[in-house]
Design brief:
With 764 residues, this protein is an alpha/beta fold. Helix content is 42%, strand content 12%. Helix 10 packs across helix 12. The relative contact order is 0.09.
């Protein structure tokens, strides 16, 4: 029989049980033992789901309290000195949380570790922070304990761990320049013995297979990193376990040669992103090695064409027999848990979708097709799958004639504004801002009162007029607060928005929404990505009334707040029946109309957030330019129909900018705000070296930590910024929106930020 297996399962729970438990623990409302019990319960439930789907093994190590890279870093004892970890003592759960968030129920608060995107996904990981001469040891027992949990419950465990080369590649530190720094490879001598110890302990626990994830094999690797694979896996082979080397998100390409002769038991291929990789890997496999074909998308939510997939796999099945395994393309972490219970979607659209639980069912059906073992229920399920795919192909709701007419004329629309020097002069005359102008990124705390009003309004117990008055009251409170503390460019606070993408998607044709389609973004933060199933069209203004109301309350400029087209694309589950670039252009056309209407309503500062701009970048540099060309074009298409005196802002966070600076400059936003607080302004080196021509707001405090920043700390950070960039082009702002923060810390933090700006102006 064809083996089916899984690379990882969503950890938050179908009802976000882990999120609620984490946040209650961080708030001091529950005990650590209650938190641990939530974890045990979720793991058991998820293993049960996977076992009942027919998986021979269950993945262990895909569960994490914050993220899997942080889990592994702490298991290896890699804890920065500021967290005061004793040399030989276990790393506690609270130390892990302090590394991620800056504070925990116990332990002294400290500056949190850097967080950034996991390859080209919206999942974030905590960057390993490496010190010169870094040492390693087994410092946490949780992974081994989870293996025992699974064994006790009767499941066969397949541990899933980050590969040593991928983990090192992701690490940073003062002694290392960047991801490709070969100096990190010198740490292998100390790192590999600990990996061997881990694998040896797995074997002693009865483990047969271990999945070692090396996704850097889909990147452009320097020669020294390529050369290291042979040495690393020769060493790990001594532990005597069967190693499944897993990679995903793209093709091996030239790195496939590294697999030849590698002493591993099998290789996992992302055949959704890279169908050609199946044959390429097959060609270099040894006679006893396994090929794991990742043929069910772990990144999107559309049903799989099982017949087409089986047809693709059949020659491999004939050649490999039981050495062909099938799996999702990557961990199912990136999709919602279960489609059951989504009563808000119509039956036709629901039939097109597949979440994590349904993807496991698809694996079992595909196994039956390949092996010829489908029972009657399986045959009926496959027939239902065929009918759903036919329905989607033939549905009229996916195409809108008016959108197609707009797209036919899109090349005639201007993307060009006047030179920045001309625009900024007009904007300064219009806005009359001081040196080091202060602003926020957009959102203010979403209080219980706000969420309750939205829930009651959606549920029908609060009328439209009452809801509007409630939101206007929240907007006025935010405006008065900003005036009182002395901010220069205000925002309306986004009280009416549930999510920066979902809010706009609900007002656009072509989108659909789930009730419980939650996906983890980082830590306890979950998002509910919209589903773009058809052509996108703006039906009516989406933000103009709220922004206009806010502007009517004050003489200070109020920013109109929009989500940019690339981020709306990246943070949605996107239709796969047309090029992503075309869907993005449809979004840009809708936003272009919104920007124009905001300007006509008297809003002369408009921000289009693009935190996902770099996230969409292909993993191979040779593929970058095609993406960057259409991504930049979509941003400019959205923003170019305004006058010189209307100031366009954009915001980007938790990304590496050095290698795409030209494209960021080509977006031609008047002001870009970025995250720099966790990196101590190091990200500004990219803007300095490139000589970025427009205004910049380097975030001076980390909103993902509950710690209130010190005024002097922010002054120092801005001083570092002023060494790199002209002071007259610098803004002062947080590094992201304030939606997830509480009012007490928000007020204290923004007061300190405004005071810091006053100090900077006095010294200018």
């Amino acid at each position: 029989m064809t083996i089916i297996h899984n690379l990882g399962f969503p950890r938050m729970g179908a009802q976000r049980e882990l999120k609620r438990s984490l946040e209650a623990y961080w708030a001091g409302q529950t005990s650590q033992e209650e938190l641990l019990e939530t974890g045990r319960s979720l793991r058991a439930h998820h293993w049960d789901l996977q076992s009942k789907a027919g998986l021979d093994t269950v993945p262990i190590g895909d569960f994490a309290w914050y993220d899997q890279i942080l889990e592994w870093s702490t298991l290896l004892g890699v804890v920065p000195a500021r967290f005061a970890q004793a040399d030989n003592s276990p790393v506690s759960l609270d130390t892990m949380f302090r590394m991620a968030r800056g504070r925990a129920p116990s332990g002294t608060p400290a500056v949190a570790c850097e967080m950034t995107k996991w390859f080209d996904t919206n999942y974030h990981y905590i960057v390993p922070e490496l010190a010169p001469g870094q040492t390693f040891r087994i410092a946490r027992e949780s992974l081994f304990e989870q293996i025992e949990e699974a064994k006790t419950l009767g499941y066969k465990a397949k541990p899933v761990i980050p590969g040593p080369l991928t983990w090192l590649w992701l690490g940073k530190g003062d002694a290392y320049e960047g991801l490709a720094d070969v100096g990190k490879l010198a740490l292998l001598d100390a790192l590999l013995p600990v990996y061997e110890q881990v694998l040896t302990r797995f074997k002693a626990q009865g483990v047969e297979w271990v999945q070692i994830d090396e996704p850097i094999l889909v990147l452009d690797l320097p020669q020294q990193w390529q050369d290291a694979f042979g040495r690393v896996y020769q060493t790990l082979n001594q532990a005597g376990l069967s190693v499944l080397l897993a990679t995903y998100f793209d093709d091996f390409r030239e790195n496939v040669a590294l697999l030849k002769g590698l002493p591993i038991a099998g290789v996992h291929v992302d055949a959704v992103r890279a169908p050609a990789a199946l044959q390429a890997v097959h060609a270099v496999l040894g006679q006893e090695q396994i090929l794991s074909a990742g043929v069910i998308s772990g990144r999107n939510i559309w049903r799989t064409d099982l017949d087409k997939t089986a047809q693709t796999l059949q020659p491999l099945k004939e050649a490999l027999g039981e050495r062909l395994w099938i799996a999702p393309s990557c961990s199912l972490l990136h999709v919602p848990v279960d489609l059951h219970g989504e009563t808000g979607l119509d039956a036709e659209l629901t039939s097109w979708l597949s979440f994590a639980v349904q993807k496991l069912d698809e694996l079992r059906l595909l196994q039956g097709l390949l092996d010829g073992t489908l029972d009657e229920a399986g045959k009926q399920a496959v027939q239902a799958q065929r009918a759903a795919l036919k329905s989607r192909r033939e549905s009229r709701r996916t195409h809108n004639p008016s959108v197609q007419a707009q797209m036919a004329q899109i090349d005639k629309l201007t993307r060009q504004r006047a030179p920045f020097a001309q625009r900024i002069e007009a904007q300064r005359n219009k806005l009359k801002l001081p040196a080091y102008p202060t602003t926020t990124i957009g959102s203010f705390p979403q209080t219980i009162e706000i969420r309750t009003a939205r829930r009651d309004w959606r549920g029908g117990s609060l009328s439209d007029s009452a809801y509007e008055k409630a939101m206007q009251a929240e907007i006025e409170q935010v405006i008065r607060f900003q005036e009182r503390i002395g901010l220069d460019v205000l925002v309306h606070g986004e009280a009416e928005r549930n999510d920066m993408v979902e809010y706009f998607g609900e007002l656009l044709a072509g989108f659909a929404f789930t009730q419980n389609g939650w996906v983890q973004s980082y830590g306890s933060r979950c998002v509910k990505p919209p589903i773009i199933f058809g052509d996108v069209l703006r039906v009516a203004p989406m933000s103009v009334a709220w922004s206009s109301y806010a502007q009517s309350l004050t003489d200070l400029p109020v920013k109109g707040m929009l989500t940019g087209p690339v981020t709306m694309l990246q943070w949605s589950f996107v239709r796969d029946d047309q090029p992503r670039a075309d869907t993005c252009r449809q979004l840009a056309l809708a936003l272009r109309e919104e920007v124009s209407d905001l300007e006509q309503a008297g809003i002369h500062v408009i921000q289009l957030d693009e935190p996902a701009f770099r996230e969409g970048l292909p993993l191979r540099k040779g593929d970058w330019q095609v993406y960057l060309d259409w991504a930049v074009d979509c941003f400019r298409l959205s923003t170019s129909a305004v006058s010189d005196e209307t100031q366009i802002h954009t915001h980007m966070c938790y990304s590496e900018f050095n290698d795409i600076m030209q494209s960021i400059a080509d977006m031609d936003a008047d002001v870009i705000t970025i995250e720099t607080s966790r990196s101590n302004m190091l990200l500004l080196e990219a803007f300095e070296n490139f000589e970025y021509p427009n205004d910049i707001g380097p975030g001076v405090y980390d909103i993902h930590s509950p710690n209130v920043p010190d005024k002097d700390w922010m002054v120092r950070l801005m001083g570092e910024a002023a060494k790199r960039l002209p002071a007259d082009r610098l803004w002062v702002n947080p590094d992201c929106g304030l939606k997830t923060r509480g009012w007490t810390e928000t007020e204290a933090s923004l007061l300190a930020m405004v005071d810091a700006a006053k100090v900077l102006r006095a010294a200018a």
